[in-house]
Each structure stands twice: as C-alpha cells, then as structure tokens.
Amino acid sequence: MGSEAFLPDVASHASATPQWWVVCLCAQWCGVCREYRQAFDQTARAWPQMRFEWVDVEDEEEVVGDLDVETFPTVLIADGRAARFLGPLLPQATVLGRMLQSLQQASQVATMDSAAQDLFERIRSSRQG
C-alpha cells in the first residue's frame, strides 16, 4: 500500500472552507523535525482545505508558552473552534493523513484539556493580523 492510500482526493476538497488547523511543534536543532518537514509539507498540499503551520518551539517561545514539548514532532490539530488532538506523532505523512481522516469523520468530539485549547488560541492569534 503506497503513501497515497491515505491522501484525500484534492479536487473533492477544493471548495471546502479552510477551518481545520494542523500545527507541527518542532525545533530547528531536531534532525527528526528537519526530516519530517518534507512529509508535513506533502500532507499540507494533499489537504488544501486545512491550514498547516510549522512552529519552532524555541523561536516562538511566547506562542508555545509553558507547554513542555518532550517528543518531536508534536502535532496540534484543531477544527477551527477547538483543539482535537495534541501529542507526539510518528513522523510519516501517512500517519498524519490517517489522523486527519479519523478526526474529521469522528462522530463524537473528544474534549481536550485547557492547555491544548490555550495553545491553539495563542497560535491562531499569532497567525492572524
């Protein structure tokens, strides 16, 4: 099974309103992060209806706040209103693609802790304006 198996049909999503946010929390010094950047960008091209952001935890300390990122990459996914996932993710495009599909298709929304929601609010605010 190729990596394209979990990538959506881009044409079918072209008219969708960008609302979901996918944020990768990484660090420039992290070799895994540097290697993951290409897969993250590939996933962003496959999901044009979502907003993808790359946040360097050291360059943007004020945005990351007190969140202690222990494992890279750590990914935050939000549906535009609320954080839906915050945690480490295997650095592979297919893993992120499956996660996005699963979260979009979920009939019940898991409640994230306030730290995840606060992080999403800070990132969203820092990217608008």
TrEMBL record:
Residues 19-81 form the Thioredoxin domain. Coiled coil: none annotated. Keywords: Isomerase. InterPro entries: Thioredoxin-like_sf, Thioredoxin_domain. GO terms for molecular function: isomerase activity. This is Thiol-disulfide isomerase/thioredoxin. It comes from Diaphorobacter nitroreducens.
